[in-house]
Amino acid sequence: MEAPRELPCPRCGTPLDTETAASHYGSRVEVERCAGCGGVFTSWGRILALSPQLVADWEERIALDPAVPGGLVRASLPCPACGRALAKVTGATLPRTLKVPDDVELHVCDKGDGFWIEAETLTRFKHAQSSHLARKRESYVEELEAKVTRQRAKAAALGFDRATPVRRAYSSAVVFLLFLVFAAILGTTLLRSYLP
Q1: Which of 22, 31, 32 is nearest to 54 (CA)?
Q2: Are the CB atoms for 16 and 8 separated by under 8 Å?
Q3: Which of 36, 45, 82, 115 has the fewest CB atoms lying closer than 10 Å?
């Protein structure tokens, strides 16, 4: 059986390490990551799933490491898997449904081997993704609160406000107690009439 081939970093040439990383949703995903420049080569779904905190930790490690090569620029980056030139795309050219900011630059293999995203770009993207999810969550909560308010207004208009069940229970308890008192009086009266 053939040993897995090491993929070279398209930016600095360092062999990519396969890392199991924390995902946004609590599970784990495998990505090919460069220990040198911090770039990531993986599928689009895995880029989306990466935890923003993990990406921030990666960026911090790179910032603290003096051995990280900087300023290395190539006209076109080769795909780590097949060696073909990666196509450069920006968030502005991608479908809006992907929620990629316009200034985020990705490199994609036209053969479908994966995406290359630079470390600082990944950080910006994950920050934008987290902000988008937070806004979505807030709008969902506001929508639910509005729905509850509308339902309560409808219930109040029909006479089913929150106090109605309590009043009904209280009224039922009073009627039951009156029944018990009446039964006790009637029972006592009947006993007296039958006893000598």
Answers
A1: 22
A2: yes
A3: 45
